[in-house]
Amino acid sequence: MTRIWIDIKNSHEPAFFKSFISKFRDHEFVITSRRYAEIQKLLDKYQMKNKVIGAHYGGNIIKKMCGLAIRDLSLYLKAPAFDVSLSHGSINAIHVAKMRNKPTISFYDNEKAAIGNKISFRFVDYLITPRALPIGNLIEQGAIEDRIIQYDGFKEDIYEADFIPDPDFLNYLPFNDFITIRPEALQAAYVKEKNSIVPDLFKAFIRENVNILYLPRYKTDRDYAKGLDVFIPDGPLKGLDVCYYSKAVLTGSGTFAREAACMGTPAVSFYPEDLLAVDQKLIHDNLMLHSRNATEIVEYVLGKKKRRPDISRSKRVQGDVFKILEEILAEVDRKERYG
Questions:
Q1: Would you kindly state where each structural domain of the chain is located, as residue ranges?
Q2: What is the C-alpha separation between 325 and 333, in angstroms, rounded?
Q3: N or C: which end of the chain has fewer CB within 10 A?
Q4: Sign of the CA dihedral running 152, 155, 161, 166
């Protein structure tokens, strides 16, 4: 039995790693996380026992780098013993695995985070990415070519393959027909734009009498909705249920839009920077709109029909990725046994 350490740093990762934990039951999993956004509440929803070590240190690059070093040390001292590290681009997990001389498996789909990539890629033993990511970019940022493994599809496919809609989900909302809006991650270091278009979106959709489910990232995001007929839930909702029941999903980052697009729900990214290769692929396939123009977004949403959800493609992607991980874990075990 291999003891696998998972370090969770962002809100989409509880759902992502739940699929692996459910599949690879012959292995033992230990989980750490950081205090950020809805991570803890989502881990509780998925009944994923974890140890909280460290937090998010904001968008200031100096504070972020200092926080990275602090969390590296804290995890090195406090993280449970493990045989192999498994993460979705956790720089801390990659560093700590290297310091403990343990192999690292890292999923990744963000070729734009150059600084983080350059200080982590060189230490990754198995870098697993969607085929949409240009290998040349990864190598330029420090990845070792023969350690890169690619698959057809998106990370969102991996956990959408297990998705079963909650039949009671609409009971948590005051309406049945609605769109969902989630703001930009303006506190993230990689986001240079610090002005949100969410207030413009609210005004435009309210004029069209569209119901809005609003999912703030930070406490300050709530200010955009003050005095407006916008519904904010009391606690976190499972993202895939939101995508399944929404008429459309609009988000200032990529993951939520990709979840919706892979499910067949009209998806809009109003991410303020250059798009990732995975998002460009979905736009090329006519499954996502990228815009920061409220009028254009409203026209797209009102004119776009929702496709019937079909997870057959996601199941194929999941099967391919599970096979990749099975082969990696077998190789790690052989090296551990025979050197």
A1: 3-162+314-338, 169-303
A2: 12
A3: C
A4: negative
